[in-house]
């Protein structure tokens, strides 16, 4: 299937668009999308290696290969493995290292290949597999991150009891967390010989080599009251066993939180480090992630351009005098350059676009991985504007895509922003069924980005309402923390005000209102159906409505205690945010509940309890479980099924009689 998709894209590029009749988005198109990630420049700045993920329908799996694009825009596929995956490429010397599940027992290990392509070989054979790595600048050594503990690599056919003593005892994709620890291994690339260089009393994350290869920076947690705070710190040490780590960060909260997946980065002159810093522990993810840098010689640690906006993907400029980063705006995310001396922020991209990742070369070239409302993520060269480099999804030029409009409206005294996607073939004055899509997070936002679901709903006659209610990112700390410990209150009011707006401007049919979302979007769906009687149909994916039962069932042990409290001490707070379950007799909307069977982020218990509550009350409802999947579905047949099932559900209750 991988080669069919790429061939189809190539044909679409080669055939003159004028000779092709554009068609509406079809459900099968979900399998044609190519997902781009992980860009990394070659040492000379002439090439960018990246990962392209596609659907293998025969295996029913999402698989990925490595690709390379030149600065001129010439692409080449580096790996051709339709049944295995390669990802996370990085250059070192004249080689490219990467992670792959092609090792024995399908374990993830580090492989290496010539930078220009060619035969690859497996470098690591670490028991239990590798979760992360960093390749030295000369390509001769790597630091591999792997779990160590009695249960690592255990025979799944001979299971043993799982003994747990940690406070944070489960995690999505990782499972139950017993005595296992993430440790660093120094690996000789030529021989594959590996030596553990860290001690097992703590977890170590996100290694990063200094430019001269003499040191590594990394992140480790403060093990005092382990898992009971976010006290991650940045350290530097020589990359050898017995070396003494030197703590660099000074903030009491989270520095370079491993959950963000952004490693501390060395300046090219080797004198400084930059990383992302969270806010105070109590604000969890509500406070914007900010840039912080350290002068390693003086030990001074400074904030960099704290502008009350979330920042991502920091990279140093070659002169070590400025930092590139992605900076979130209202409904957009742009690439920016921040001067260390003046803290001036200069935006390199602008307009309606959503930046997802950055790469910066040693000779000052900047590439952005971003998208727009009618274009999925692709790599582009940041020059005077953005020059496209990759074209994996150009086949979409042969599709008629729905129009997206910016919207603003009042919710009480507050101005709320969002997006409205018009039905394909929209006619002024005609009213349409509307689906209010609710985003996850909760601290996230809908942006000017291509979302296949929206286009598919619009192609089937729906208006799609995408509101960024209070609690969303993009508009600063105060806007985000408006729902702190008060979920399902002002955000519900803002969504309902958005529905009012869509009705008032004559687009939404007030008798045909639907809602739906996944993760916090599923949670917010539960709040909406318990609050707004106009809703006729809903799809709640990976939601939770009884947080008394959620405590200990999901992975948010510390988050509950920081934001909501303890069930036996703060029962009223838990009951207040659990009103969709505890007051399920308020719900009249036909609601489908969906969940992923292996999800420890938002487990199926949340969907199961709401399903039973509505089934008990004889409200039209269904429960759909996607077995074996974690929080984000990846199996192509499940992604297809979910969207097909969602549309059929909305059609049944919002288009009856058409």
Automatic annotation (TrEMBL):
Single GO term (MF): serine-type endopeptidase activity
Keyword annotations: Hydrolase, Protease, Serine protease, Signal
InterPro entries hit by this protein: 6-blade_b-propeller_TolB-like, AB_hydrolase_fold, Peptidase_S9_cat, WD40
Gene3D superfamilies for the chain: alpha/beta hydrolase, TolB, C-terminal domain
Organism listed in the record: Hyphococcus luteus
Annotated protein name in UniProt: S9 family peptidase
Signal peptide annotation: 1-19
Highest taxon of source: Bacteria
Start and end residues of each Peptidase S9 prolyl oligopeptidase catalytic domain: 451-655
A GO BP entry: proteolysis
The UniProt record lists the keyword Thylakoid: no
């Amino acid at each position: 299937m991988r080669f069919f998709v790429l061939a189809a894209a190539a044909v679409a590029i080669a055939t003159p668009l004028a000779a092709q009749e554009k068609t509406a988005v079809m459900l099968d198109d979900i399998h044609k999308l190519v997902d781009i990630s992980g860009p990394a420049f070659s040492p000379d700045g002439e090439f960018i290696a990246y990962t392209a993920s596609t659907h293998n329908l025969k295996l029913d799996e999402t698989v990925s290969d490595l690709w390379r694009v030149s600065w001129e825009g010439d692409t080449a596929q580096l790996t051709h493995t339709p049944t295995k995956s390669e990802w996370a490429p990085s250059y070192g010397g004249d080689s490219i290292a990467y992670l792959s599940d092609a090792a024995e027992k399908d374990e993830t290990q580090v492989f290496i290949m010539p930078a220009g392509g060619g035969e690859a070989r497996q470098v690591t054979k670490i028991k239990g597999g590798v979760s992360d790595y960093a390749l030295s600048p000369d390509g001769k050594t790597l630091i591999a991150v792997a779990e160590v503990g009695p249960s690592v690599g255990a025979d799944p056919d001979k299971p043993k009891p799982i003994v747990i003593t940690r406070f944070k005892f489960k995690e999505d994709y990782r499972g139950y967390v017993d005595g296992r620890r993430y440790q660093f291994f120094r690996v000789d690339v030529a021989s594959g010989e590996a030596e553990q260089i860290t001690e097992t009393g703590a977890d170590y994350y996100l290694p990063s080599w200094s430019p001269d290869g003499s040191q590594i920076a990394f992140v480790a947690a403060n093990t005092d009251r382990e898992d009971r705070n976010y006290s991650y710190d940045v350290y530097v040490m020589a990359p050898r066993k017995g070396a003494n780590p030197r703590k660099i960060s000074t903030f009491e909260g989270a520095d370079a939180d491993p959950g963000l997946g952004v490693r501390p980065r060395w300046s090219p002159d080797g004198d400084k480090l930059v990383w992302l810093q969270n806010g105070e522990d109590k604000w969890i993810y509500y406070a914007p992630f900010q840039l912080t840098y350290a002068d390693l010689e003086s030990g001074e640690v400074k904030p960099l351009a704290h502008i009350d906006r979330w920042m991502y993907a920091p990279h140093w400029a070659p002169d070590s005098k400025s930092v590139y980063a992605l900076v979130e705006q209202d409904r957009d995310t742009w690439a920016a350059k921040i001067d260390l001396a003046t803290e001036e922020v200069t935006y390199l991209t602008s307009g309606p676009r959503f930046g997802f990742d950055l790469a910066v070369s040693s000779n000052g070239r900047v590439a952005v991985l971003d998208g727009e409302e009618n274009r999925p993520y692709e790599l582009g060269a940041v020059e005077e504007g953005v020059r496209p480099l990759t074209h994996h999804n150009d086949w979409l030029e042969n599709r008629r895509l729905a129009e997206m409009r910016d919207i603003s409206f009042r919710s009480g005294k507050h101005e709320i922003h969002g997006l409205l996607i018009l039905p394909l073939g929209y006619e002024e004055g005609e009213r349409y069924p509307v689906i209010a899509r609710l985003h996850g997070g909760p601290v996230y936002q809908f942006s000017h980005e291509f979302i296949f679901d929206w286009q598919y709903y619009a192609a089937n006659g729906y208006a799609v309402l995408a509101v960024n209610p209070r609690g969303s990112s993009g508009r600063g700390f105060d806007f985000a923390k408006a729902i702190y410990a008060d979920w399902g209150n002002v955000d519900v009011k803002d969504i309902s005000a958005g529905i009012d707006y869509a009705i008032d401007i004559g687009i939404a049919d007030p008798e045909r209102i639907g809602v739906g979302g996944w993760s916090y979007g599923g949670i917010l769906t539960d709040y909406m159906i318990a609050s707004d009687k106009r809703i006729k149909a809903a799809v709640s994916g990976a939601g939770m409505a009884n947080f008394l039962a959620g405590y200990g069932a999901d992975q948010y042990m510390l988050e509950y205690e920081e934001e909501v409290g303890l069930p036996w001490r703060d029962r009223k707070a838990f009951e207040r945010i659990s009103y969709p379950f505890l007051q399920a007799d308020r719900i009249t909307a036909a609601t489908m509940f969906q969940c992923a069977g292996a999800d420890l982020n938002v487990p199926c218990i949340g969907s199961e309890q709401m399903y039973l509550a509505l089934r008990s009350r004889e409200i039209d409802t269904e429960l759909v479980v996607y077995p074996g999947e974690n929080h984000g579905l990846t199996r192509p047949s499940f992604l297809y099924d979910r969207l097909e099932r969602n549309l059929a559900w909305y059609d049944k209750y919002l288009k009856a009689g058409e």
